[in-house]
Amino acid sequence: MSEDNIAFLQSLYKYLLDEYNRLNLLKSDLERSIETLKALSKSSEENIGPLILPISTFISLFVEAAKAREVLVLMGGNVYAKMGPEEALKQMKERLEEVNEGIREVSNNLAKVQIELENAQRMVRRAR
Question: What are the alphabetically sorted keywords of the record (predicted)?
């Protein structure tokens, strides 16, 4: 193993770690969405509120009461689909499972790259 191989493995490890962190943020967001949708599903015919709706980083709306019969779900590429809270909940659970699978795959790859990196570093130290 050469120094170039070690640099490549270090770069790959950093990439995988970044991907792992990104997927965990996505997982957290999906879990919050699922909890919100569960609450909305229970009260789709009742007024809910008061609510604080974030509009941007600096602005939120305060809403006294609203009915949540439908929600907009980001499908990707700035395309949203209108659906009931129950269908949205199903979509979010499916996405969460996909993200969990991605986390498992990245974790496995991280472990493999870490072992390869440690072996490569050991071989370079022995060669010196």
Answer: Chaperone, Coiled coil
Which tokens in the block code for residue 50?
Answer: 């008061």
End-to-end CA distance of the chain: 12
- For tokens 């809270």, the residue is 85
Residues of 18-32 as b/e, b for ≥16 C-beta within 10 angstroms? ebbeebeebbeebee
- Domain 3-127 class in CATH: mainly alpha
| Nearest partner of 84 among 43, 47, 113, judged by Cα | 43
User: Distance between CA 67 and CA 46 in Å, rounded?
Assistant: 6
In the chain, where the domains are located: 3-127
CB count, 10 Å around CB of 44?
A: 15
Q: What is the pTM of this model?
A: 0.80
Whole-angstrom Cα Rg for the chain:
22
